[in-house]
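Project channel, design review

CF: Before we commit to the Streptococcus loxodontisalivarius constructs, I'd like one complete example in the thread so the newer folks can see what an input/output pair looks like. Taking Putative gluconeogenesis factor.
RD: sounds good, go ahead.
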Amino acid sequence: MRKPKITVIGGGTGIPVILKSLRREDVAITAVVTVADDGGSSGELRSAMQLTPPGDLRNVLVAMSDMPKLYEQVFQYRFQEGDGALAGHPLGNLIIAGMAEMQGSTYNAMQLLTKFFHVTGKIYPASESPLTLHAVFQDGHEVVGESSIAGYEGMIDHVYVTNTYNDDKPKASRKVVDAILESDMIVLGPGSLFTSILPNLVIPEIKQALLETKAEVAYVCNIMTQHGETEHFSDADHVAVLNRHLGQDVIDTVLVNIDQVPQEYMENNKFDEYLVQVDHDFEGLRRECKRVISSNFLRLEKGGAFHHGDLVVEELMNLVRSKRP
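CF: and here is what came back for Putative gluconeogenesis factor:
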């Protein structure tokens, strides 16, 4: 039998956790990575070179590669304050940017780098053009730019993307639509709902492919609410926002962590983006999706509350095996 095909869609620090564990399974992996980041090193390089931001692609590349630990440390090294124009830039971002200039696009650069670093699977930027994220709040105010969204006080109603440097309609990268349509499973997240996951899904071609695919669509729900994005959200609220942006109930399965983050841990660590643990609304979840998998997926590390990749992937693999003939 052929390997199950699993496509993971998202960005930030969330999906690398899943991809790192998934690459140890006998599956064909495709990662579709957001290109709407306009902050930090990625934002500077994107603005200077008009390329798709490299930061999320860098983290995915490391997660899916068998590169030795030393190579990873070199690739992830971030120049220190006081290093002039290089300050704050991870070396890997500069390598991806340089390769993009050599190869004519970030898409081409990533295809070469996946071979260079012996990546298990395929990595595609969601679009071959940098995108600008727009957030429309419930009071009608609109914020332009992913890095600016958390700074506005209010509840987000919806988001959409535009091409950053021209007026063309945003398009999916080549092969992304085919990957979605040919998958046995689509995994959304984990990651920031409005700034890591949805910027991919509101690209018209990707949205349409998700509506048409026969793949199982699984969403790994965030453990913590996020400042400026999902304050006071339950797990059902997260899924409702995804389904609303897609235009119908697309999410088949939701994975929910039920392990409690210790209060002492939260008090002793500064969660710069986090607020509180996501509330559970299992009745609401049953209205929004077909299946809920609730288990202990929590991993406490470096002052943060993350998903335990191996435990999440174990459930995903059980699900994909049960769906195959």
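RD: helpful, thanks. The chain has one domain: 5-323.
CF: The mean pLDDT is 94.
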